[in-house]
Write a structure and sequence with these properties.
The complex is a heterodimer of chains A (226) and B (385). Helices cover 31% and strands 26% of the residues of chain A. Chain A has 226 residues and is α/β, with parallel strands linked by helices. In chain A, the strands form 2 sheets. In chain A, strands 6-7-8-3-9-10 form a 6-stranded mixed β-sheet. A 4-stranded antiparallel β-sheet of chain A has the order 2-1-4-5, with helices on one face. The longest helix of chain A is centred in the last third of the chain and has 18 residues. Chain A is globular and about 50 Å long. With 385 residues, chain B is an alpha+beta fold. Chain B has 2 domains: 163 residues, no CATH class; 185 residues, no CATH class. Chain B is 51% helix and 17% strand. In chain B, the strands form 2 sheets. A 6-stranded mixed barrel of chain B has the order 3-4-8-5-7-6. In chain B, helix 1 packs across helix 12, helix 10 packs across helix 13 and helix 12 runs antiparallel to helix 13. Classes of the chains: A alpha/beta (226), B alpha+beta (385). At the A-B interface, helix 1, helix 2 and helix 3 of A face helix 1 and helix 11 of B.
Chain lengths: 226, 385
């Protein structure tokens, strides 16, 4: 079974000329489909940059990344945007739209898939929110939800379209330990149910047991790709 | 709810009622300004040509220096004779126009009034009230008073209808009102007084009796007006302008558009209105985008195209245009009524102007949106990590 993510000899730098700073050095590793992988490392080690490259949010400069069968290094803007629709993103700051209800926020994710008709979208959004435990809060605005609840809406949004890959950046950083753990447990459980792959960047030592594999990074290099 | 996409533009705009109200108010102000300025501008044109609209002649002769019918340049009466040489011309009637000083009979206040003088056998225009009252004017020092007037002249219509004898002074000469007509008042004077040529000359004694302001030509029924006009144009060359009443009106419109400072002032008013609307809508859209940049970036990360976000911003601009246009127009209708009563100028909502104002509002909001969209470029999905 091909890897969900295959990174080969990736180098990346920020800035130009004299201010050019390299942040990734010859990074290579694969993530098996259906696994939960945590990427760890001190601040500034390049893990978040790596995540943005895997998600097609930045253009690749040097190296290859194959995500869900797509070669991102050879892809143009339009193709990158198209690939992103098959990835679920969970951010540290949920970034829910404050003028949409929980249900509407989740629907926005399904709207990217025109094959799903509006009535089905609404139904699936409602079901997803029930699954994450927010069935009573469908019409609440984010301002009326707690941090943990907002993050759960964010997970519902990321997962409702049943993406093959989920990229999460510090999903627990803004939450207390209990909510944080609950949120990641939920993410892991749903991902397993959908057979999706999860690549998560985190500092949080308390959730490491939920991963199938841990990859360490330091100063732009992979320390061990076990 | 609806079987449609999440209406992002609408929900974002209306999430904060206060901000939405502020934005809509901005558009309302712009729409109102545009209606009022365009309305006054149109009133200027229409009132300037009020009497010309009622002229009964086929061709009108004026001095080449006459640009506004209400402020004509006199020309020698004998020039009219040439037109009589044409077989299709039945008659050529002289027409006198000038602005006199009317003294309010009740409070003595002096105000300008337009005076029209025509041959006693032939009223040259068919405004309401002329035909039934014209015979009464063939007496010394009398005339017909226009009941579309500004109140400064004194409430002549009311007192006249009550059966009172109304005498007043025009240019220090006593005249009596013997009937009412209905023409229309402009920017030049506060009312109109219609009388015979003889009475006119008594009111303006300094006027050369051999100089008239306008010649109205009556053609034989069935005559080819265009052909006659062409011949008369050759006959008169550069001495007189030979126009149909419609051409006269169109020429005066153009003159006012190009030259009258007041026209410029009103046009500037429209521009200012547009600018206000543009500025307020831009401000609202810009700050809305700025405060939602991370969320917009998230949408981009999720896979929404730049085009989608641009469309959302433009939709928001259009919604503001629509939501401001309707109340703005309703308010304008009210202000038109007030304006009409205060100035006696012809001010009416018209479909054409409604479409003009709508078009301007849409364009102003759309442009505003286009410029605000540039702020979206800062929504970089890679930076929200």
């Amino acid at each position: 079974m091909p890897a969900a993510i295959d990174i080969q000899h990736l180098n990346f730098s920020f800035g130009e000329g004299e201010l050019r700073k390299q942040v990734l050095y010859d990074v290579s590793f694969q993530v098996e489909a259906g696994t939960v992988v945590i990427l760890m490392g001190p601040s500034g080690c390049g893990k978040t940059t790596l995540l943005t490259l895997v998600g097609g949010l930045r253009s690749i400069q040097d190296g290859e990344i194959n995500v869900l069968g797509h070669d991102l290094d050879a892809a143009g803007q339009k193709e990158l945007v198209a690939v992103r629709r098959h990835i679920g993103f969970v951010f540290q700051l949920h970034n829910l739209l404050d003028f949409l209800t929980a249900q509407q926020n989740v629907e926005m994710s399904l709207q990217l898939h025109p094959e799903v008709d509006p009535a089905t979208r609404r139904r699936r959004a409602q079901e997803m929110l029930k699954v994450v435990g927010l069935g009573e809060r469908l019409n609440y605005f984010p301002a009326a939800l707690s941090g943990g609840q907002r993050q759960r809406v964010s997970i519902a949004r990321a997962l409702v379209a049943e993406p093959q890959l989920i990229l999460a950046d510090e999903p627990t950083a803004a939450l207390d330990s209990t909510s944080g753990r609950q949120v990641v447990e939920l993410l892991q459980r749903l991902a397993k149910e959908q057979g999706a792959t999860v690549l998560m960047v985190t500092h949080d030592n308390r959730i490491l047991d939920l991963a199938d594999r841990i990859v360490h990074m330091e100063d732009g290099r992979i320390l061990d790709a076990s | 709810m609806f079987g449609r996409d999440v209406p992002l533009a609408w929900l974002q705009l209306t999430h904060s009622k206060a901000k939405f109200a502020a934005a809509v108010t901005g558009v309302v102000v712009a729409v109102l300004l545009m209606w009022m300025q365009l309305g006054f501008l149109d009133a200027l044109y229409r009132s300037a040509t009020a009497i010309t609209n009622y002229l009964t002649g086929d061709i009108v002769l004026t001095s080449p220096h006459t640009n506004e019918f209400a402020r004509p340049e006199p020309f020698p009466r004998r020039l009219l004779g040439r037109a009589l040489g044409h077989p299709d011309v039945v008659a050529v009637h002289p027409f006198y126009i000038n602005t006199g000083m009317w003294q309010n009979p009740w409070n003595g206040v002096k105000r300008p009034i337009m005076v029209f003088g025509m041959p006693p056998n032939q009223p040259l225009f068919n405004a309401p009230g002329i035909s039934e009252n014209w015979d009464r004017t063939n007496v010394a020092d009398v005339g017909l008073f226009d009941e579309v007037y500004r109140h400064f002249l004194g409430n002549v219509p009311k007192h006249f209808r009550a059966g009172e004898t109304i005498t007043a002074e025009i240019n220090h000469r006593r005249v009596q009102v013997v009937g009412l007509v209905r023409i229309g008042v402009g920017f030049q004077a506060d009312g109109n007084f219609v009388t015979t040529d003889a009475n006119f000359l008594r009111l303006f004694p300094d006027r050369d009796p051999g100089a008239i302001d306008c010649g109205v030509i009556e053609l034989r029924p069935g005559a080819d007006r265009a052909a006659v006009q062409a011949i008369l144009k050759e006959t008169y060359g550069r001495e007189l302008k030979v126009q149909t009443p419609q051409e006269l009106i169109a020429a005066e419109y153009k003159f006012l558009q190009d030259n009258a400072p007041i026209g410029f002032v009103f046009t500037m008013g429209v521009v200012v209105g547009c600018f206000i609307g543009f500025a307020i809508v831009y401000q609202v859209l810009f700050t809305d985008i700025s405060s939602h940049l991370p969320q917009y970036a998230t949408l981009k990360a999720m896979g929404y195209s730049d085009g989608y976000l641009v469309r959302t911003v433009l939709q928001a601009a259009m919604i503001l245009a629509l939501c401001g246009y309707v109340p703005g127009t309703i308010l304008a209708a009210g202000l038109y009524e007030i304006g009409k009563r205060a100035t006696m100028l012809p001010m009416d909502l018209s479909l054409t102007r409604g479409l003009q104002v709508f078009g301007l509002s849409l364009a102003m909001c759309f442009l505003s949106g286009l410029v605000a969209v540039r702020r979206l470029r800062s929504a970089d999905p890679a930076e929200i990590f």
